[in-house]
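Per your request, structure below.
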């Protein structure tokens, strides 16, 4: 099965990766924690590549372009709420939240916000001040008030899917960093990559990342003609896979980098801290898995064994 993205999308991915990389990558994201000018520069870079001209809701090619753009944003730890702005409603950024503990990444930025839970219930959030937490340094607590209508299920699904592409970019970059490290690091007279246990650990992480990449491409290309229940299950499955893969790959990266992996001198540390909101919000991996259970008996959760299997 051919799973490569169209050539024009691959070309756009190369352009966006280069432009966002010019901001400085994870180290620029680290500086953005204390310098808001870097977040302004991030928005300028996105505007230059045409990010805010993409129609992700109704143009399939634009959706593919948005996916690879989100992947590039994840790889560079771009300090800007890209997915939320791509899915803006009447000019207000769309954030997915847990009503029990609402938090919005980059919620302190100027501009209006609309919040929704995974059921599509809409709220008008009132963001508070940043807490300067190390995990998710741009997370802002918010109060929601009473529900105010609904957000289309398609928007919720796109939010989950594009967020998963951003996670994909982060774990691909983390894997590249740790692969380069074990090849270059000399321990006991030979590269770390020569040790069998290290090879196995890197191989397992690489397989997980490749699997996430293939699932992300499959999900983003699923036909719009499918029932909304199936597409919602697809989005949940992808986000669950992305969260699980991120936890595995980041854990392996920290183990192989040693103490360096927990210092912000290492890009892995910055990627980890800045990707935590996507991994943990709007719900944990365990809560996402529980939401998939009702889709098993009604067939919306498709697997290899969803239909009759001949002997």
């Amino acid at each position: 099965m051919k799973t490569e993205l169209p050539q024009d999308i691959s070309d756009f991915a190369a352009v966006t990766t280069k432009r966002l990389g010019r901001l400085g990558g994870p180290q620029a994201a680290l500086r953005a924690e204390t310098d808001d000018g870097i977040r302004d520069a991030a928005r300028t870079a996105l505007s230059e590549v045409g990010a805010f001209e993409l129609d992700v809701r109704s143009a399939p090619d634009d959706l593919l372009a948005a996916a690879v753009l989100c992947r590039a944003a994840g790889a560079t730890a771009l300090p800007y709420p890209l997915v939320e702005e791509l899915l803006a409603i009447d000019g207000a950024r769309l954030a997915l939240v847990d009503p029990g503990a609402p938090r919005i990444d980059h919620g302190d930025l100027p501009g209006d916000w609309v919040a929704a839970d995974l059921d599509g219930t809409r709220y008008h959030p009132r963001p508070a001040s940043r807490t300067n937490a190390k995990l998710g340094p741009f997370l802002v607590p918010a109060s929601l008030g009473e529900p105010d209508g609904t957000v289309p299920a398609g928007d919720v699904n796109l939010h989950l899917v594009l967020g998963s592409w951003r996670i994909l970019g982060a774990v691909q970059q983390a894997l590249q960093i740790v692969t380069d490290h074990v090849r270059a690091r000399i321990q006991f007279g030979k590269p770390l990559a020569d040790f069998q246990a290290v090879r196995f650990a890197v191989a397992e992480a690489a397989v997980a990342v490749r699997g996430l990449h293939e699932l992300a491409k499959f999900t983003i290309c699923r036909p719009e003609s499918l029932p909304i229940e199936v597409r919602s299950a697809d989005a949940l499955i992808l986000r669950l896979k992305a969260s699980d893969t991120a936890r595995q790959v980041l854990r392996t990266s920290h183990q192989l980098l040693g103490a360096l992996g927990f210092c912000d001198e290492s890009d892995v540390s910055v990627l980890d801290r800045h990707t935590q909101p996507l991994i943990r919000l709007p719900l944990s991996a365990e809560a996402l898995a529980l939401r998939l259970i009702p889709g098993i008996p009604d067939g919306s959760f498709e697997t290899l064994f969803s239909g009759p299997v001949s002997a």
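The beta strands are 93-96, 103-105, 113-116, 122-123, 126-127, 139-143, 186-187, 190-191.

Regards,
D.
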